[in-house]
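Notes on consecutive records. When two proteins share a document, each keeps its own sequence and its own token line. Never mix them. Below: protein one.
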Amino acid sequence: MDLLTFFARQQGIFPGRGVFLLPAAPWFGGHEPAATKRVWDMSIPSGAPIYLLADANPSGTLDASETTITVNGATVPDVDTYVHAGVPALHSGGMREHAVLDLVFAPPPSGHYRIEVRARFEPQSAGDDAAGETAAPGGGAAENETTLIYDFIVKPPDVLGPLALRDPSGTAYATLGGERRRIPDSDTLRLLGYPPDMIVSASHETLAAIPEGPALPFLREGMLVRAGDHPAIFRLQDGKRRWIKNPQSIAASGEEVRTIDAPVLQTIPPLLDDDLLLKGTVSDAFHVERGSLRKVPDWQWVASRGLDPDNLLFVADRVLAGLPQDSPHWMMPGGAWIDRWFDSPALGRSMPYRVYLPPNYDAPERAGRRYPVIYLLHGVSGRYDEWSGYGVDQVANDLLADGKFAHTIIVMPQGGMGYWMNQDGGTFWGDYVARDLVEHVDATFRTIPKREARAIGGLSMGAHGAMQLALNHPDVFGIAGAHSPSIRSQESAPAYFGTNGGFARRDPISLVRDLTLSPPPVIWIDTGDKDAWRWSAEALREALLERGWAHEWHVFPGEHDGWYWGDHIWDYLQFYSSAFAKVGIPLVR
């Protein structure tokens, strides 16, 4: 469901997931016609189970005999046992009950691997394209054969795997490379940083398929540890490791220093003391400043700050990804963004999101301060970090420095391709945002929990979603921003928009004409002068004018693309900040 619904063009380990997702063929979700061959080259972290979506059919049936899977030339036997029917996921924007052929490989030892998937797709009728956006696999040919090739290297283990396994008796194991190692007790499990939802039950048969190595050492709060002969010493504190900058003080105190395996030490999350240098397996190195990570431009910059590159600490990539990150050192500092996840009752699953917290959010002197929230929704093929790709965090920092933007929390959730609505006969994306996400954010962060202090905005599909959510939930959102809205007519809308009254309840233009709101939300609309969807923004504006609802209207030079949105984030953020002030929300600049 992750790959079909959210991550069709993505790969890797995502917030809330302990499995490495191999990229899926985009035609499985109806995003493009099938190709004869698709090849991916990548590196995969050691110790992670690997998920492969080998085939998917939105018709609900799948003939496994038409698919062959090989690993390093050896054929995977009995692939029909890996076929599952009734998997709900999006295809061309509409929910379908898919049949899928998918496998999870146990964490492989380090080395080079090549997985090939050869499959035939039967032609599908034009009616299978629910949204009218892309042709289904087959493209009118008699049949279509395609090959997926995953060529990857599993690196030698430098940290424990992202997933802890628990056997029926309650014993927990971590993976290191291709082996499992027993975790001796709950204190050790906690210090290794495994959240509860990354500990999964495993049968004796599953565990027997993974060779067992030596047990991990006991870890305790206050313990001093080091990795082999490396001079760095750490104290385990508050479930993390704190680097001892002055090891001579430890020698003088006579405290025992335990030696543990480097991958075990590097799995323990670090305490973010200022002037730490951190690095994962990728090339970027980070400097810790005010409790957040900032990328360093080069080692000359490190030396100029009087920092020693020999004190660079290695951190697991999955841990690094969950630490707060501020702007790189060559840009203006400010707030920090963090990737998180939460469980949505409306969707029945864990969902990732990115949150931007204003500067010094965790500082003791700001402990009681509360902030307004902007919810920003991505477009039709984006994901939760799309707005960051256009620079929203950096623009927020720059505007904060100029006094043109108030201290605000920004939340960027993950959606599918379903227009952020409660679909007719489909998924409750609207309840997921307006109920589950808002409740979670209010309970997790220091928000001002009222409608006037909540803004919702989006681009393209997200603009449609932001407007209909603000209008359908006026008690939740008091401000709405529609940036390049792509508002469907009933004739062009996917089936999950419904018809007649059902469509009207999901259509922003119909909602403006039909609803009586007192007061209506504070509204902004913008569009590019060459945007192919400009007509829908103008239709929304006409409906607002007919109702006499105040709003801001802007036509800027540009098209329906990332260049346009990136250029105008400066305008968007200042609108939200001024709208909060307009409705009486106390702001800090």
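Protein two starts on the next line and is unrelated to protein one.
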Amino acid sequence: MLHIKQLVLTLILLGWMVNVQVGMTQNFNIDFYHLQRDDDLLSSSYNCLAQDEYGFMWFGSWDGGGLYRYDGYNLKSFVVDPDDLNSSLTSNRINSVHTPGDGFAYVGTHGGLSIINLITGDIEQWANQVRTLPSIECSYIESICLDQKGSIYVGSLYGLGRIPAERDTMYWLKALESNAGKHPMVILNDRLDENTLWLATEKNLFKYNKQNRIYQRFSPDHNNYFIYDIEFDSDSSLYVATTSGQLFNYDVIKDEWTDMRLSSVVQKEYGEITNLYFSDTGRIWVATSNEVCQFEESTRTASCLSHQPANKDGLFPIGLYRALFGDRHGRLWIASRLGVQFSKDPCALPTLPSKPPQVVCLSYQTNIDLEAEKRPLLIHDSIYLNVDQRDVTFNYVLPNPLHPQQVTYEIKLEGFDDVFYSSDQRSVRYPRLPGGRYKLKLRARDGEGEWTTTTVINVTAEKKLIEYLWFRIVIGLFTVGSLILLNRYLVLQVKKEERLKASFANRLNEVQLQALRAQMNPHFLFNCLNSIKYYAISKSREETADYLSKFALLVRTILNNSKSHTVALLEELEAMKLYVEIENIRLEDKFDFFLEVDESIDTLDVRVPPMIFQPYVENAIWHGLMNKRGKGTLKIVIKNMGDIIQCLVEDNGIGRRAAREINQGRTHRKTSMGMQITADRISLIHDVYGIKTSINIVDLTNSKNEACGTRVIIEIPLISEAKS
């Protein structure tokens, strides 16, 4: 009897422990990365998640923010383009996104269906086709599913629609009974029968036979709930999430319903179950209005995540968690009304994409971007660069790595680079890429993991004409021939110039000698010697010595200056003053002499041809002043005209005309060669040394138009000591 009582007590205790176990929950924390409105998102509320075969994550905004593709670093948005309505999204309010691994993303919106080519970025619209069909409710696409034959099934407010694999039109199937809920919120392919679809409407679960187009309704005994989501487990049983917080399991083979009693282990205030995701066999991630829980099927226990204000990396606060997803690393993604977040570490069953992880080339930029050039979403096969696009930058990424800051890339442009080189950057620039054919090879390693398979992209840089071998040969031959001809021409020119220079030098030497002889003419010397004799007889010893010293100094200065083609202006002026003083002494102070030099002229640095002024000064004295009645004036002014030195030799003598008449009346006329010799010297100096001198003679007259003197204007280019 005692044993029976003990057995009863044991059974009661075990039953109590089972009941406690069924109702037990525990809380735990997971750290998340957050994507919110401040992270280039146009809205806050998101309700769908998907990962394509390349590893990009896609999510859509329910309240008008559009569609996004995330590569682990940057977001790319897709919105309605008002300027191109037929080639953009049908609406910015996204209901679902589906990436079955066939190279496309299928997007259901409030305005219809959009199909995005994952490589080219082209968007195929089904908005117009929808609006021509049975009801405006057809334009609200809630759910999308592709079957094994490539047909697209969509669920709208009207009911179920089908686009065949040829994508030539859209067919709307028989509408569901309105009292059963005609809105297919979720569409799934049957795991065992390819001709069967499972549909979840607001109130019921349906099985649809695609061959005979017959709906079969399944539902538990009570229907005080609203169905949010359905999902197959690994045993092909269907799990049904409802607004009442109840989670049902439906065995499609046995046709049996089981209430998983989830409402007893999650909070009831906002207890709707909005989304399901199987993290592993027997474990289900469950999204509710205010928590995200992991439900253990065998023990009926739940481990729940809730918002912790102290944890800034935790769950969003009461975010109406609408979608759950496990990426290829097993990180849990959650879409909610406050944004999108994903766990920093794996905690769910990975969803393996149809392609192994690879580096993808996102885009390229060149120094010249053509406006008409349409850029794809991904560079999949080849890149063509024209002759002007030689500064090119390639942008690439390993989409959504587990350790974004620890990814190492290896890059090689085969045909330009000899080996792979490593980088932690997601772009590489080639600023001077020669024309030719190359292969861009990319691979990456996530942290300490294995290297991905190598991505290969063909790059063709159009060659310039000069980069072709035949053109280089032609240019080489032409250049060699031209150089030979040019060399022969230059040699001949050099020889010709040398002959001309020798001839000019000889003529210049002759003219210089003639100038020296003209200045040292016997008449001048004879007069000077007579003056010396006169001074020796009639003047004092000091006056005679002074005159003789000045004469000797003048002769020595003229001889020294005649040795070079330029002399300092100071030396030329000193020689000219000596000459004027000697002539004035000999003529017994016949004229007054004035010399003015511009203070801005450095007379030591400025150079002039030797004996350039003397013939004009001599002319002024002998032909202008000597025949003048009374005392005359000789004035010499040196001015700075910028790049030119101007010398004015001015006298108030009888003028050139009267001087010629006097000279013609003489019985023995002396022909003065100084002026002609000076003109010849100026011409030769210009030809040989490039010093261009100009002479301008002006006859001065008074108010009665009578001759009152002569002005000679001599302009010489400014020649410094460094250039002489």
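For the record: The CA atoms of residues 362 and 378 lie 5 Å apart.
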